């Protein structure tokens, strides 16, 4: 399982790194790292058993297992700095979007089909430049549904091909 997870993260990292770099206007370098608490796959059965026995009482007291792949984590770094600890809200949002949107190319490569994408109020936490970069990188690639409360920061040329609907008083209106 660890090997497959690592392979997945390595492949996803290639797609996400490119996308994040573009969305951030080439100012940030994203790195995704899979962190395993213990390299159990490199240990003998006896060594693993010994570790589990050492942690047994603690596991009972905490009502959780301290060892195993369920304790592994995925870390995100922007310019070699942990984004979860030091990234701004906009940077963290950009990382999350880059990872999710990189799955578009990942899915395309695996299935030979593009998915349909729903971006539900993701633009509100991004500045105008990042909004534009985000929408620009997917505009001609996949069918996308975007919900937002404000489109003023989006460049007009990106809106030309869009079908825009407004909701007011529980009624849907198409933009003219």
Description:
- This protein is an alpha+beta fold.
- It has one domain: 3-Layer(aba) Sandwich (Rossmann fold).
- 47% of the residues lie in helices and 17% in strands.
- It is built from six helices and seven strands.
- The chain has helices at residues 2-23, 45-62, 83-86, 89-111, 128-138, 156-159; strands spanning 30-35, 73-78, 81-82, 117-120, 144-147, 165-168, 171-174.
- Strands 1-2-3 form a three-stranded antiparallel beta sheet. Strands 4-5 form a two-stranded parallel ribbon.
- A hairpin with a 2-residue loop joins strand 2 (73-78) and strand 3.
- The N and C termini lie far apart (52 Å).
What is shown here, in short?
47% of the residues lie in helices and 17% in strands.
| Overall morphology | elongated
Q: Which regions have little confidence, pLDDT < 50, spanning 5+ residues? A: none
Sheet with the most strands, sense and barrel status: 3 strands, antiparallel
| Overall tally of domains | 1
Identify the CATH architecture: 3-Layer(aba) Sandwich
The strand line-up of the biggest sheet is 1-2-3
* CATH topology term: Rossmann fold
Helix content: 40-55%
Under CATH at level 1, the class stands as Alpha Beta
Question: CATH superfamily assignment?
Answer: P-loop containing nucleotide triphosphate hydrolases
* Terminal-residue CA separation: 52 Å
Tell me the Rg in angstroms.
21 Å
Q: How many beta strands in the DSSP annotation?
A: 7
Question: Total number of helical segments?
Answer: 6
**Class inferred from helices and paired strands:** alpha+beta
The average pLDDT score comes to: 89
Instruction: Estimate the strand proportion.
Output: 15-25%
Helix and strand string, N-terminal first? HEHEEHHEHEHEE
């Amino acid at each position: 399982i660890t090997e497959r997870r690592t392979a997945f993260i390595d492949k996803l990292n290639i797609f996400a790194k490119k996308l994040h770099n573009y969305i951030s206007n080439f100012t940030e370098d994203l790195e995704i790292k899979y962190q395993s608490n213990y390299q159990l796959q490199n240990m003998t059965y006896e060594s693993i058993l010994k570790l589990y026995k050492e942690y047994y009482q603690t596991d009972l007291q905490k009502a959780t297992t301290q060892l195993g792949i369920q304790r592994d984590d995925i870390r995100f770094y922007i310019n070699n700095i942990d984004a979860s600890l030091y990234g701004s809200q906009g940077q963290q949002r950009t990382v999350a979007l880059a990872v999710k949107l990189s799955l578009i190319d990942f899915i395309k490569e695996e299935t030979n089909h593009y998915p349909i994408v729903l971006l539900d109020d993701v633009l509100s936490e991004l500045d105008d430049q990042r909004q534009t970069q985000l929408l620009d990188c997917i505009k001609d690639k996949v069918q996308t549904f975007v919900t937002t409360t404000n489109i003023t920061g989006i460049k007009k040329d990106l809106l030309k091909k869009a079908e825009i609907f407004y909701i007011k008083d529980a009624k849907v209106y198409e933009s003219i």
